[in-house]
Specification:
Blueprint (H helix, E strand, L loop, with lengths): L2 H20 L17 H13 L2 H10 L4 H15 L2 H10 L11 H20 L7 H9 L3 H6 L7 E5 L5 E3 L2 E5 L1 H8 L9 E2 L10
Parallel strand pairs: 1-3
Antiparallel strand pairs: 1-2, 3-4
Amino acid sequence: MRDTDVRAAIAAERRDLAALLGELPAERWDAPSLCAGWRVREVVAHMTMPFRSSLPGFLWQLVRARGNFDRMADRSARRDAALLPAEELLGSLRENATHPWKPPGGGFEGALSHDVIHGLDITVALGLARKVPEDRLGIVLRGVRPKQVKYFGVDLDGIELRADDLDWSYGSGAPLSGAAQDLLLVLCGRSLPEGRLRGGPSARFSAR
């Protein structure tokens, strides 16, 4: 797929998320997301961090975190969520719909994955019935690789993820079925609300 097509998908996804977040009551910004320990505002702070950070600033934060990217990302999200009002975080997402940021080694497909996954961290946790457009979700799912699953520490040995709304599956073994976007969250190590997954292994990947 051409970069121009992926970038158009990124811009559309950010605009859709900004519109949705703009309708949230103020108190829902403090609701928990599917990212452990992060509220909605921390997730949005994390999503918009690349738009507000210079390369030297990013590297300095990484040095302070002793080279641990996850530690750096957590610190940055918590700091920015505490310092910046929701309106500013929302404006950063809306105004940077076409920002050319790419995660290291991930390309524009990685940037789209970042936005789609974190958008789902918010909407699924809040119980919002948002469905990621099929064309955008397809780009993300086609890019799934074993090393990414390993990064999230998900044990899918002997399990086949099988989407019931798209022609997509991953792995082999006992079937775990659900909407493709929910199975994407499984790949990313998220625990989903009960009732969203079906099959023998579903309890392992559902919140209690």
